[in-house]
Amino acid sequence: QVQVVESGGGLVQTGGSLRLSCAASGSIFGINTMGWYRQAPGKQRELVAYITGGGSTNYADSVKGRFTISRDNAKNTVYLQMNSLKPEDAAVYYCNVAILFRGTYWGQGTQVTVSS
């Protein structure tokens, strides 16, 4: 069994910062790509950022320069540092983890609310 649990969401004012965490646990031999997605009401889920097992990163154009993804392989954890938050960043943020020999797993989501 594998569990993926996000944390760190909440309410922040425009221009503020939040740090999301996502930890994978269970029967894990190794983790490839770890990523963050988000889904706002009435919109499709979209990729925010991902980081490969080798540490390469990729960001959606809308968050480049404001968000930073990182990972701690010893803790099977991925982070998303979000700075200069805008109202349009408000969404439920989901973590996606590609686990060797087991497939991909989603977390339950964490709500980010940005007040104007």
What can you see in these coordinates?
Strands 2, 4, 5, 6, 9, 10 and 11 form a 7-stranded mixed β-sheet that branches. It is built from no helices and 11 strands. The chain is mostly beta strands. The protein is globular. It is 0% helix and 59% strand. It starts with a strand and ends with a strand. A hairpin with a 3-residue loop joins strand 9 and strand 10 (103-106).
Write a brief caption for the model.
This protein is mainly beta and 116 residues long.
Write the layout of secondary structure elements.
Layout: E1 2-7, E2 10-13, E3 18-26, E4 31-39, E5 46-51, E6 57-59, E7 67-72, E8 77-82, E9 91-99, E10 103-106, E11 110-115
Parallel strand pairs: 2-11
Antiparallel strand pairs: 1-3, 3-8, 4-5, 4-9, 5-6, 7-8, 9-10, 9-11
Fraction of residues in helix = under 10%
Cα-to-Cα separation, first versus last residue? 41 Å
What's the multimeric state?
single chain
What spatial form do the alpha-carbon principal axes imply?
globular
Described by strand count, sense and barrel closure, the largest sheet is: 7 strands, mixed
Radius of gyration: 14 Å
Global structural class: mainly beta
Q: Total number of β-strand segments? A: 11
> What is the H-and-E element order?
EEEEEEEEEEE
Q: What fraction of the residues are assigned to beta strands by DSSP?
A: over 45%
Number of helices: 0
Low-pLDDT stretches:
none
Average residue-wise pLDDT: 97
